[in-house]
Amino acid sequence: MQHLIHSIGVVSSPYTQKFGIPRQPQLVPAAKICITLNPEFSMDSVRGLDGFEYIWVQFLFHDAVAEGWAEMVRPPRLGGKKKMGVFATRSPHRPNHMGLSLLPLERVDNLNGRVQIWCKGGDLLDGTPVLDIKPYIPFVEAKPDAQAGFVSGAPEKLAIEWQPESGVGQLSTEMRELIEQSIAQDPRPAYQEIPERVYGMEIAGFDVKFRVVGNTAVILSC
Fold it and tell me: Which of 53, 59, 205, 221 is deepest in the core (most CB within 10 A)?
């Protein structure tokens, strides 16, 4: 019997392009996302979900499908210079292009008959199709002492410096935190170290320009 997978909803996210998306969930707490379920799902489908603090979100790396997949990939945590098997990484270039994120659940709403699930710490591209949602159950899924292979410890963060002419004064506190936390994760390709290069990142309607000098990201404009 053939089983088909369909999306159950879609993500609204401040990240409208791949460059700048956090490489893991929860690294940018200020990145709030909303999952709007398809019309066929009523509030009955999420009854009891608001009793959980975290949820698993299974999704499709839709923007990477056309790029195909690779058996060996270069994880950013290894500087982009060493290859690992795709199943030993979280690369989007997978045979089925499926991703999995553990996100803090903020609330569940109903807007005009559509279920909305709000989370923070999102690492998802705007428009991402969601395939499934499951509650996180700590006593069976939390393994803080487990070996983590080549991924040891949280990544180092860049310091943030705003240029006076950057326009930082026009930003709300929430938007400034989102931009700072996103850039602090160092979205550059792992192999790039070009101090004079200016990078551009679209986030929540802002076109942010910055460059990296040493361990500091200098934000030039927004």
Answer: 59
Q: Are 75 and 189 in contact (CB under 8 A)?
A: no
Listed residue (25, 124, 24, 31) closest to 75, CA to CA? 24
Q: Domains (ranges, CATH) in the chain?
A: 9-141 (2.40.30.70), 159-221 (no CATH)
Q: Distance between CA atoms of 135 and 133, rounded to whole angstroms? A: 7
Query: pTM, whole model, 2 decimals?
Result: 0.91
Count CB neighbours of 58 within 10 A: 15
The mean pLDDT of 43-52, rounded to a whole number, is 97
- Checking DSSP bridges between strand 33-37 and strand 9-12, what pairing results, if any? antiparallel
Query: What count of other Cβ atoms lies within 10 Å of the Cβ of residue 55?
Result: 20
